[in-house]
Amino acid sequence: MNSKINIKQLTSLAKEASVVAGKAILEIYNSADFGVEMKGDNSPLTKADQAAHQVIENFLEKTGLPILSEEGKDIPYEVRKVWDYFWMVDPLDGTKEFIKKNGEFTVNIALIHEGQPILGVVYAPVLGWLYWGNKEEGAWKQEGSATAFQLKKRFSSEVKTIVASRSHLSPETQDFIDQYPGVEVISMGSSLKFMLVAEGKAQVYPRFAPTMEWDTAAAHGVILAMNGHMLQWPNNHIINYNKIDLLNPYFITFLLEINLNKKK
């Protein structure tokens, strides 16, 4: 790894940035005016997205590493392709959940190197849940001011519970679920779906609907810190970041080797 990169220090910085951004988000969450606008792709944007972006940028720009944020400026691939390390940020993942006030939204910060997230931080401000992970320290969760605990692979590989998106339950996803008779299906908003897998509350998360790289990078970093998997579906190729097109392919996420009953 590059001598200028101290993964533990950068993880600590990203954790701090996410918590401070979370405070900025909660100020708006608890106010009467979210300032909702619609972006060009018809997805919502709020004052909270913009406030969190500014907070995170202020923290991360100290590192001198490039920042690619959902709410930042568009950066051409010709510029991005030469980046060795860079931050990938979704300042508020789950804006629809924010607007609904169900608390299931997160701040996502990842550090990408050679197409892979080498650290990930996911923070749910309303719930007070902070997740982080890197290959040196493993994956961890802290709930509020309680002592952090390490997330470990200690669960059955039998598929008993599948986590799926409430708002993006595509026919392909339903077909996947139907291959496991009697399976329980649970859901949470934003990157918290990945964290249900990390905590062993679900064995697999299939996502057969559009996502962007910043939607998944931080949670993917936590999963990789546990030696888990996020693979393209159905070819099982690895997911790469900083592509020309920042749209993710369909994927599945799991920790242990599971019985993937693929329909022919």
From TrEMBL:
Main location per the UniProt record: membrane
Location(s) in or outside the cell: Cell membrane
Residue positions binding Mg(2+) 1: E70, D90, L92, D215
Membrane topology: Peripheral membrane protein
UniProt KW Ribosomal protein keyword: no
Cited InterPro entries: CysQ, CysQ/Inositol_MonoPase, Inositol_monoP_metal-BS, Inositol_monophosphatase-like
GO CC annotation terms, alphabetical: plasma membrane
The keyword Thylakoid belongs to this UniProt entry's keyword annotation: no
Binding site for substrate: E70, L92, D93, G94, T95, D215
A GO term for molecular function: 3'(2'),5'-bisphosphate nucleotidase activity
One GO term of the biological process aspect: sulfate assimilation
Documented EC number(s): 3.1.3.7
Reactions catalysed, as given in the entry: adenosine 3',5'-bisphosphate + H2O = AMP + phosphate
Keywords linked to the UniProt accession: Cell membrane, Hydrolase, Magnesium, Membrane, Metal-binding
Cofactor(s) this protein requires: Mg(2+)
Positions bound to Mg(2+) 2: D90, D93, D215
Stretches that traverse the bilayer: none
Gene3D superfamilies per UniProt: 3.40.190.80, Fructose-1,6-Bisphosphatase, subunit A, domain 1 (3.30.540.10)
PANTHER family: 3'(2'),5'-BISPHOSPHATE NUCLEOTIDASE 1
Function statement: Converts adenosine-3',5'-bisphosphate (PAP) to AMP.
NCBIfam families tied to this protein: bisphos_cysQ
HAMAP family named among the record's database cross-references: CysQ
Family indicated by similarity: Belongs to the inositol monophosphatase superfamily. CysQ family.
Protein name as it appears in the record: 3'(2'),5'-bisphosphate nucleotidase CysQ
Gene: cysQ
